[in-house]
């Protein structure tokens, strides 16, 4: 099937990529000592959904928790409230999330979805969200 001159690749569809992300999130160790009723996978997918939906805050995302879209699009069975999501996500090691980035990036590379973004000497030109900006600034300031 052709879409806008590009062949549609099922493994690069939103459903496939979100499913891959969910599978990788399911491998992240859950260090909670009690049964919370909400899986860590659902908490991580909720965090991803919040950014994907461009919610301006956790409170805004909290208003969307009951929507069927979270289940049908992101596979979230039970989304946490804003306070609980913050508490749980604060305990997750950022390093344990690295495989999720690698998985999606690998699928995009294999599917040649990034070829149009090759810019200079084989490097990709991508927009990033800048989450490391302040940490990097503190690191540099601490070592000057």
List the helices and strands and how they pair.
Elements: E1 2-3, E2 6-7, H1 14-25, H2 40-52, H3 58-64, H4 68-74, H5 82-91, H6 98-110, H7 133-142
Antiparallel strand pairs: 1-2
Helix pairs in contact: 1-2, 1-6, 3-5
Strand content: under 5%
Question: Can you count the beta strands?
Answer: 2
Number of domains: 1
Helix content: 40-55%
Low-confidence stretches: 133-144
Biggest sheet features: 2 strands, antiparallel
- Mean pLDDT over the residues: 81
Strand order of the largest sheet: 1-2
> What is the string of helix and strand elements?
EEHHHHHHH
Helix/strand-derived class?
A: mainly alpha
Total of DSSP H or I helical runs spanning 4+ residues: 7
Principal-axis shape: globular
The whole-angstrom Rg is: 18 Å
The N- to C-terminal Cα distance equals 56 Å
